Structures are given as C-alpha cells and as structure tokens.
Automatic annotation (TrEMBL), chain A:
InterPro entries: Ub_conjugating_enzyme, UBC, UBQ-conjugating_enzyme/RWD
Organism: Dactylellina haptotyla (strain CBS 200.50)
Entry keyword Methyltransferase: no
Lineage, uppermost ranks: Eukaryota, Fungi, Dikarya, Ascomycota, Pezizomycotina
Domain named UBC core: residues: 8-158
SUPFAM superfamilies linked to this entry: UBC-like (SSF54495)
Name of the protein: UBC core domain-containing protein
Keyword Iron-sulfur among UniProt keywords: no
TrEMBL record, chain B:
Segments passing through the bilayer: 154-179, 199-216, 352-378, 390-409
Region listing for Disordered, in residue ranges: 1-56
Principal location class: membrane
Membrane topology qualifier: Multi-pass membrane protein
GO molecular function: zinc ion binding
Keywords, ordered alphabetically: Membrane, Metal-binding, Transmembrane, Transmembrane helix, Zinc, Zinc-finger
Official protein name in the record: RING-CH-type domain-containing protein
Domain RING-CH-type: 58-131
C-alpha cells in the first residue's frame, strides 16, 4: 500500500508542478522541489499581499509533503522570520485550519501558498502563535500592529536582501 | 484523437441539456435505494447501497480533472491510470476517479470524529452517495460498536457511582464501629439480637450518607436541617426517656444543638479577636495593638474556656444512646472550624483540607475516646465507649479551637514585635571566613 500511495503522490506532485509552471500564481515567486531526488520536499517563495503592511516582502517557505499526500496536507513552515499572529516567530509554524483539519485533496501546493497569503491579511488573533502581535491586534492598535509588521518585513523579508543573499 | 472524443462530448452536452431531468432521475434513484436499504440509509445519510449496474451514466468531457489525483481524461489517453472509472458524485464541477474517491473516503473514516458524519463534497458540501455490498455481519458489528460506545459512558458513571456507594457504606460502618464500640455497633447494624440482620432502608441510606454528612456538616449548607435529621432517622424507634448518661439516640439528636450553642458562643465572644488577629497576620495588616487589648484578649480567652468546658461537660452528661448511622455524621457536625468564614465551601486546597479533616474525624474522635478510657475516673462515670468517644470528640474540637486561637494570637504578637536590624559591618563574617580558611 505505501509504495502505491507514494507513487500516486509523486504523480500528483508532478502534475501540480507542470500545472504551476504553466499558470502563474501571483502569490508565489518560486515553487518546486529542493532537488530532483526528492519530490516530497519543496521550497517556495510567498509574496506579501499588495496594499498591506506585508507588501514588498518575500518569505521562503519550507514545504514537506507526506507519503499519502493528496489525502493528508503538506507541512508548511516559514523559513524567513515572519511577524504574524498565527505564525510562530521562532519555529515558523503556521496555524491555519487548511493545513490541518480543513484540508481536502482538492487543494494543491500552489493553492495552499495562496491560502497562506490570504491568511496574512485576515489573521485569527483568537488562536495566536505569536501572542504579542495578536495582543496588539486585539487591543485595536492597528498603527502599532502595521508598523511592527513593516519593521519585520524591512528587517527580514525584503526581496533585495533575499535575492542578494 | 479529437474525433474520437467528439461523440462523447455531444453525449455529455445532450445530458447537460436535460440536467434538471437527470437530477430528478438521480433523486428517484437514491429514493429507490433508500427504500431498498431502509435501515442503513436512515442512520447514515451519506452511505447508500445500490447495485453497481444501476449507477447513473457519467457525463464525460476531455477537460474533466480528478480533484484528487489532478489527472484529466486527456492524460489518460496518453498514459492509462489504474484509478478506476470516472465518477461525478455531486452536482458541482468536481469529478474524480472512483479509486481516488474510495481512497479518500477510507482515509476520512480513519479519523474517529468523522466516522458518523456523512461524506461531503469539499466544494459544494453535498453528500456523496456510496454503494457497498450489504452485509448483515458488518451491520451487526457496526451497531454493536455504536451501542458499546454509547453505553460506555453510562457504564463508567454507574461503575463510579456504585464504587462510591460501596466505599461510603464501608466508611459508614467503620465510623459506627469506631464511635460506638463493637457492642453497640453490632446492635445498630445487625439488629438487637445481633442475629436477625436485615438490610433496611435506614441502613441502606444512612450508612453511605455518613461520609457525605460529615463533609457537608463542615460547611454551612445543612445548618438548618442537621438538627432535625437524627430525629427523623432514629428517635421514633425508642420512647423518649432521659437517663444518665443519655442514650446514643438522644446524644446524637442533641449534638447539633450543642454545636449551634457552641458556635454562637464562639461567634459572640471570640470571633472579634479571631478576626482581629487574622487580619493582623494577613499581609495588609499594619496595626499596633495596645497593651490594654492584650490583657483584654487573655481575659476573654480564659472566660471562653470556662464557658466551653461547661458546655462540654453538659454534653457529656447529656450523652445518650442509640442509632448510629448518624453517630459519625453528628460527631462531624461537632467539628466546626474556628472561624465561620472557613466554613464556606470553596474549591481549592481548603476544600481538600475540609474533606480530609471531616473524614478523619471519626478516627480522631475514637482515639480521643480511647485516651479518655485510660483514665479510671472517666471510666467509672462513663462506662460505655460511645460516651467516652463523644466526650473525646467534643474535647478535641475545644482543644483545637483553643490552640488555633492561641496560635493566631501568638503570631499576631510576634508580628507586632518585629523590628528591622541595622546593618552591621562585615567584621564577624570575615572572621568566620578566616576560621574556615584556617581549617583548610
């Protein structure tokens, strides 16, 4: 059973990869396996939502895909430091129901990154992984919230820095 | 290739042209399966069990894509897949291979929470109908599983309940033997002759209630009803006549009143001091008492001791004889706490103290009674173990209260005597260091 599940997952990942290369996803700067040997480990670049404090930032995402992939969700973590109520500042863990209970095989890797981009502008401060930012947001200090995010974007996620590095 | 596909596409278009009709057909179809498998479908709306040959025709399009493996019909023309036939389980745009759908569904069923939920299309949330062989064994097993799950909680509650009941009863019996001594306890539990044991409602209710009442009597919940309880339970068995020492029944009936009197006296004479010292000990206390107050306090304490002793003696004399299911309970009622505020039932370490204290009380009472029994004089006046126990319990409460008060007083006094020491030069310390150094 595992080998066939593995084969199914690889086939579907290849499908997704070729589809991603054909169609552009505005939320994604790059997406694909880290190396040709292992199709179950991807990296991707998440573009900050335009017209938001996250605009202009690019975050590297680490995407680990399970063997029973379309049935189970991929594990996505931020590799670039991300300041967001639902992202752990140190581990980069993301709290998003799509990556856990709400996952269905109808989503793909690319659409998952799109969903993460949508999470940037619609955070859930009631289930925070970053309590400090969530508190700012809940107390209604949008100015503080926005400028803190902008600082982190400038400090860690500027595109120039990433490409330069 | 395209000319091969053409007929399929037209057939699909024809089908979509009469979409409403085919939908109603599908409705009839599922209705038919509903009646064919009434039992299973009624319980699991998502699972229907028609025969494979009856499946409605699947409309085909080259652009159809399996939403699980992401492969399209066009891909299959290039490379055949083993995912089975195409299915379109709901009215929205999602199509899939049967094999992919079945894998997905069995994966969903692995999580126990979703086990009884109907399987839904992730897009339109309409139920996905599924057919499988009908098997009596599987149905039976499923219903057993369901029922076991349902009855488990009931069984657990019932088991815990009966365990609690048995424990309480055993505790009650032990308390009776501790308080009344073997002879009296036998008479109470086994009946007057000790032979015709009958499990009466009084024993069945009274025994397990003992620990409960012991605990509750430490709170103020039953203050109003406790004095009446012993009367209800026991007093109508014997005619009311006063003896010296009084019978256990009368003793027990009197104890709640004695307790109320004691408490009233305590509240009147000692509570103000108790409160004062307590607040003084407390973190916000910043009061300095005068010497006058100190003297006053001591006088009060002495006075109070006398009062209490009189009461206790009265109790001891009033001791009487009889039923026991309440012996423990009322003895517990005796053990009131020093300050009324402490008798509020609050969850926390205090509650644990309260419960443990209440349940240990019969043991304490019995050992006090045993100590008293060592004194020949008391043995002469109170030949029955029961009376010595009751007296011992009263004494214990009294001593405990006095000690608690005295302790508070001492602590308050200690607090008042505090002063800050001036900083001293390090000289002595250096000497100490030097000596240790020399030792090395």
């Amino acid at each position: 059973m595992p080998p066939s599940a593995n084969a199914n997952a690889s086939r579907r990942l290849l499908q997704e990869l070729s589809k991603f290369n054909q169609e552009d996803n505005p939320a994604v700067t790059y997406l694909g396996p880290v190396d040709d040997e292992d199709i179950f480990h991807w990296r991707g670049g998440l573009r900050g939502t335009p017209d938001s404090p996250y605009e202009g930032g690019v975050w590297d995402l680490d995407i680990v895909i399970p063997d029973n992939y379309p049935l189970a969700p991929p594990t996505v973590t931020f590799m670039t430091k991300m300041c967001h109520p639902n992202v752990h500042i140190k581990t980069g863990e993301i709290c998003l129901d799509l990556l856990k209970s709400a996952w269905t095989p109808a989503y793909g890797i690319s659409s998952t990154v799109t969903a993460i981009q949508a999470l940037l502008t619609s955070p859930e401060p009631d289930s925070p992984l970053n309590v400090d930012v969530a508190t700012l947001l809940r107390s209604g200090d949008t100015v503080g919230y926005d400028s803190l995010i902008r600082y982190y974007v400038w400090r860690y996620a500027k595109k120039e820095r990433n490409t330069g590095a | 290739m395209s000319h091969l596909q053409a007929p399929r596409s037209t057939s699909w278009r024809a089908a979509s042209g009469v979409a409403s009709e085919s939908e109603t057909d599908a409705g009839k179809y599922s209705d038919a399966t509903l009646t064919a498998n009434e039992d299973s479908s009624a319980e699991e709306p998502g699972l229907l069990i028609p025969l494979k040959s009856q499946s409605p025709p699947v409309v085909e399009d080259e652009d159809d894509k399996c939403w699980i493996c992401f492969e399209s019909r066009a891909d299959e023309l290039i490379e055949s897949s083993n995912h089975g036939v195409w299915r379109k389980p709901c009215k929205c745009a999602l199509t899939a291979h049967e094999g992919c759908l079945l894998d997905w569904i069995s994966d969903l069923e692995k999580t126990p929470s979703s086990m009884n939920k109907p399987i839904q299309c992730p897009q339109c949330k309409s139920n996905i109908l599924l057919r499988q062989e009908r098997s009596t064994i599987v149905e039976l097993g499923k219903s057993i599983e369901r029922n076991v799950r349902r009855t488990n909680s009931v069984a657990i509650v019932a088991g815990l309940g009966s365990a609690f009941f048995v424990t309480s009863t055993v505790y009650g019996v032990n308390a009776i033997y501790l308080i009344c001594g073997t002879k009296e306890a036998n008479a109470i539990i086994l009946g007057p002759g000790g032979r015709d044991f009958q499990w009466t409602w009084r024993l069945a209710v009274g025994l397990p209630v003992i620990p409960l009442i012991l605990v509750v009597s430490r709170t103020r919940l039953l203050d109003a009803t406790l004095p009446i309880l012993p009367l209800i339970f026991f007093c109508h068995t014997e005619p009311f006549h006063l003896t010296l020492p009084p019978s256990p029944a009368i003793t027990l009936a009197l104890l709640p009143y004695v307790r109320s009197i004691y408490e009233a006296a305590y509240n009147k004479f000692l509570l103000p001091w108790d409160k004062k010292w307590t607040t003084e000990i407390g973190p916000t206390a910043a009061t300095l008492a005068t010497d006058d107050n100190d003297v006053g306090l001591e006088i009060q304490v002495v006075e109070m001791d006398e009062n209490e002793e009189e009461e206790e003696v009265a109790n001891g004399n009033a001791d009487a004889h009889a039923p026991v299911a309440h012996a423990g309970a009322d003895a517990g009622a005796e053990g009131q706490d020093a300050w009324r505020v402490e008798r509020e039932l609050v969850l926390g370490p205090e509650t644990a103290n309260l419960v443990v204290g209440a349940l240990l009380f019969p043991g304490v009472v019995a050992s006090m009674g045993g100590l008293l029994g060592k004194i020949p004089f008391i043995r002469k006046i109170l030949p029955e173990r029961f009376h010595r126990n009751i007296l011992g319990g009263c004494l214990f409460v009294l001593i405990k209260d006095i000690f608690t008060l005295y302790y508070k007083y001492k602590r308050a006094k200690q607090r008042r005597s505090r002063e800050i020491l001036n900083y001293q030069k390090r000289a002595p310390r250096r000497e100490a260091n030097a000596t240790t150094g020399m030792r090395r």
